Amino acid sequence: NKQVIFKDYVPGILQESDMYITNSTIKLKVPSDTKAVLVKNLYLSCDPYMRIRMRSLQGSYFAPFNPGSPITGRGVAKVVDSSHPDFKKGDLVYGMTGWEEYSLIAATESLFKIHDKDVPLSYYLGILGMPGLTAYAGFYEICSPKKGEYVFVSAASGAVGQLVGQFAKLLGCYVVGSAGSKDKVDLLKNKFGFDDAFNYKEEPDLNAALRRYFPEGIDIYFENVGGKMLDAVLLNMRVHGRISVCGMISQYNLEQPEGVHNLMLLVMKRIRMEGFMVADYTHLYSKYLEMVLPLIKEEKIVYVEDTAQGIESGPSALIGLFAGRNIGKQVVAVASE
Ligand code: NDP
């Protein structure tokens, strides 16, 4: 059973050498005195919050990983053996699993059966999983969006951002995204239907860039990156604008977070800036599926994934999120059904 082990807490930049692969034997049988499920992992998800679990932060929302143990994260898997009445051999499931070929899962409350199988299974880590619900709750619940409003999305080609932009377009908003390469900018404009997009790495003055793309200002900012981008956005927000703070990935590899200088503008422009955690919105999941499944099937929404092959590629795929190597939702394909 190949496993990706988390070595030790990392205060600064995360590197591949902070994880290593081991190989051991495992009995493909669930101990009979438990109510556990043994799964074969098919796809593993790379998510930015996993970096936060690699810090020894006291009081953090995310429990730190255990050094010397396999990384845990979301995955899609097939049940190999089960002593739990709700799961049987052959079931396809998604939920919290380990970065390993086979996982013995005792915490079955975070494991869910896959019923709709005529979509790619890896979608349960993206558009039909946590990032999808994040985009849905973060946009519709936090932004109070209205048709015709000016919407800006950062990290716009990623797992969450590509959906926020498409939801905003479906509502009739004017949508601009930022991303870190020409290929991603092309994707935003040509595949996801954003009205415009720019490569923030090629803009020496982010304030000037945003003024160019939003001459009348921004009504809604979907915040994925933080740092300098947030400061530039604050200068370009309209009165009564809303900022949905989903994440600040530019800060996750820093030992000390950067300061934000323009927060006083929240007062002058009467801006509502609100953070949220997707875990508080699980009650909306079935409503979200009702909306999004038909949109996928009618091809009114598209979803781009970046698939790394083999469990050994997990560490480099995870690190790639912080260098912007992923184009779309980053998953790791571990095995086929
Ligand atoms: P993505 O698929 O968007 O991958 C991360 C992307 O972030 C990279 O591809 C890169 O794109 C961009 N990025 C990396 N480093 C920087 C940097 N220093 N400055 C600017 N951009 C950077 O990830 P997700 O869609 O999964 O996550 C997006 C955000 O949403 C994250 O902040 C994450 O923490 C947050 N999140 C929050 C949740 C919640 O409950 N609040 C739930 C899920 C996600 P590029 O090439 O464009 O730079």
UniProtKB/TrEMBL annotation:
Q: Which GO terms describe its molecular function?
A: 2-alkenal reductase [NAD(P)H] activity
The signal sequence is none
- Enumerate the Pfam families for this protein: ADH_N_2, ADH_zinc_N
What UniProt keywords apply to this chain's record, in alphabetical order? Oxidoreductase
Keyword Repeat tagged: no
Residue intervals of the Enoyl reductase (ER) domain: 55-332
Q: Which Gene3D superfamilies match?
A: Medium-chain alcohol dehydrogenases, catalytic domain (3.90.180.10), NAD(P)-binding Rossmann-like Domain (3.40.50.720)
This protein's name: Enoyl reductase (ER) domain-containing protein
User: What is the species of this protein?
Assistant: Manihot esculenta
